[in-house]
Amino acid sequence: MQLVWHPPFCGVSRVRVLAWTCECRATFYELCQAGGQSFIRRTLQCEPQHDIKETFRWPLRQAHDVWAALLCGEAR
């Protein structure tokens, strides 16, 4: 599964992070929820600032399925 990454959506004031990968790696991911929808946030830790991108918004159940695929290496 190929994920499409977009610039962060600025229209949401509060985002809840539900799950995450280790921040010790150059690239880490977060499963997020905001406004009744869920998405995955990718952070590339590079200099001089981090590169943050987000996926499309899905219902929570579908986002959990994509999150599981990402952790298993079936999504990029």
Tell me what you see in this structure.
With 76 residues, the chain is an alpha+beta fold. Helix content is 16%, strand content 33%. It is built from one helix and four strands. A four-stranded antiparallel beta sheet has the order 1-2-3-4, covered by helices on one side. Strand 3 (37-44) and strand 4 (51-54) form a beta hairpin. The radius of gyration is 12 Å and the shape is globular. 13% of the residues are buried. The mean pLDDT is 92.
Coarse morphology: globular
Q: Strand order, biggest sheet?
A: 1-2-3-4
Percentage of residues in DSSP E strands: 25-35%
Tell how many strands the DSSP assignment holds. Answer: 4
Are there runs of 5+ residues with pLDDT below 50, and where? none
User: N-to-C SSE series?
Assistant: EEEEH
Give the fraction of residues assigned to helices. 10-25%
Mind describing the biggest β-sheet?
4 strands, antiparallel
pLDDT averaged residue by residue: 92
Specify Rg, calculated over alpha carbons. Answer: 12 Å
Structural class: alpha+beta
What is this structure's SSE topology?
Layout lengths: L15 E5 L6 E8 L2 E8 L6 E4 L5 H12 L5
Antiparallel strand pairs: 1-2, 2-3, 3-4
Q: Summarize this, please?
A:
With 76 residues, this protein is of the alpha+beta class. The model has no long low-confidence stretch (mean pLDDT 92).
Kindly list the characteristics that best describe this protein.
single chain; 76 residues; alpha+beta; 4-stranded antiparallel beta sheet; 16% helix; globular
